Amino acid sequence: MIRTKILGLGSYVPDRVVTNEELAYLDDQHVRQETLQTETSDEWIQKRTGIRERRYVPNDGTWSTSDLALHAAKRALTDANIDASEIDCIIFGTLSPDMHFPGTAVILQKKLGIDKTGCACFDIRQQCSSFVYALQMADAFVRTGMYKRILLIGAELHSHSLDYTTRGRDVMVLFGDGAGAMLLGPVESEDPRDGVMYTSAHADGSGAMDLYLGLFDIAHRPYLFIDPKDRETNRGMYPQMDGKRVFLNAVRAMVMSTQAALANTGMSWDDIQWFVPHQANLRINEKVVEVAKIPPEKVLNTIQFYGNTTAATVPLTIDHWRREGKVKKGDRILSSVFGSGFTWGAAIFTI
Ligand code: UT7
């Protein structure tokens, strides 16, 4: 029987570390000013979110999401010992694409130097749930024999589209730049626990306006006109969030999808080495761990160092702790995610 194996893993974060303390002094070009730009504090951010710092790309106009993805993809290719020319499909999850269209997967394909291979390129728009959605797609493609070398990417460049004023502080303090990548391919195995064992993906569109960016809100602004300096109209340039509704729905959906993953596979925490939740808020993850009765020593978080990198969080977190020596080849992971949409899901797989 063909099963889907994870052949390689890689991640990338930019060098610039932005602490909570520095964040309060950044202007909209990410340049540190003498005077406070946003009324926030290290104490508030750490207490409410667990975040200590995040990474930002250099603000020199040369970076886009596909560049972060390129670095992560190259590391995953090296890890898998696979040449880029072997990739026959790219699945790219991001809410911060290089441009409105075309999708970022084709731009990454070109940067990888494989544009002439003609490989399939998909962009998916499931925000913080992209990893599980992409894994489900990749697993189906591999098991049906459609593709044999799939590059799964989650990458985000958030730092250029945040509101660096007190008005936007609830969202701005949460997000960071980064990328994670996985290479997936087929393996012959009769063991149903091998490779990608389980995926589930769900959505509830009634939550769409609880976390959104209305930049291309055609129904209400048919002709895009925003003066970035006009505080009355430039709100549409930034993500809007009802934080409490997102928080409550995230806890509920991540608990439910984690419990369903165990029930549907007949597994217990004795069979699983690590729980890797999406990294939106440490308090969300602590609540999920408490309610779903997950052994705390099996939980991996990185939000303290990277903030919320949306589509990148799960592969970035696994790769971070693998480089720290915690995660080992052959470990089984249960991952649970929740994001804008609302979208959510869970997966069990062996790394
Ligand atoms: O991947 C999915 C993406 N997003 C999420 O999952 C986020 C889910 N939601 C959350 O993480 C939390 O709701 C937040 C961290 C966004 C906010 O935490 P909270 O405990 O729900 O705070 P709150 O919205 O109830 O705000 C409490 C106070 C308010 O002030 P007043 O009205 O009590 O005077 C806010 O204006 O904290 C204020 N506040 C801040 N203060 C300092 C909001 N953001 C900040 C800030 N710094 N950055």
Describe this structure in words.
- The chain has 351 residues and is of the alpha/beta class.
- It has two domains: 2-188, Thiolase/Chalcone synthase (Peroxisomal Thiolase, Chain A, domain 1); 196-350, 3-Layer(aba) Sandwich (Peroxisomal Thiolase, Chain A, domain 1).
- It is built from ten helices and 13 strands.
- The chain has helices spanning 20-23, 42-49, 65-80, 104-111, 130-143, 169-172, 243-265, 282-291, 303-306, 313-323, and strands at residues 2-12, 16-19, 53-56, 89-93, 120-124, 150-156, 178-188, 196-203, 211-212, 240-241, 274-277, 332-339, 343-350.
- The strands form four sheets. Strands 1-7-6-4-5 form a five-stranded mixed sheet, sandwiched between helices. A four-stranded mixed sheet has the order 8-13-12-11, sandwiched between helices. The protein has a two-stranded antiparallel sheet with strand order 2-3.
- Helix 3 packs across helix 4 (104-111) and helix 7 packs across helix 8 (282-291).
- The two termini are 19 Å apart.
- The site of oxa(dethia)-CoA has 20 residues, from helix 2, helix 6 and helix 7.
Question: How are the SSEs ordered, and which strands pair?
Answer:
Layout: E1 2-12, E2 16-19, H1 20-23, H2 42-49, E3 53-56, H3 65-80, E4 89-93, H4 104-111, E5 120-124, H5 130-143, E6 150-156, H6 169-172, E7 178-188, E8 196-203, E9 211-212, E10 240-241, H7 243-265, E11 274-277, H8 282-291, H9 303-306, H10 313-323, E12 332-339, E13 343-350
Parallel strand pairs: 4-5, 4-6, 11-12
Antiparallel strand pairs: 1-7, 2-3, 6-7, 8-13, 9-10, 12-13
Helix pairs in contact: 3-4, 7-8
The structure holds oxa(dethia)-CoA.
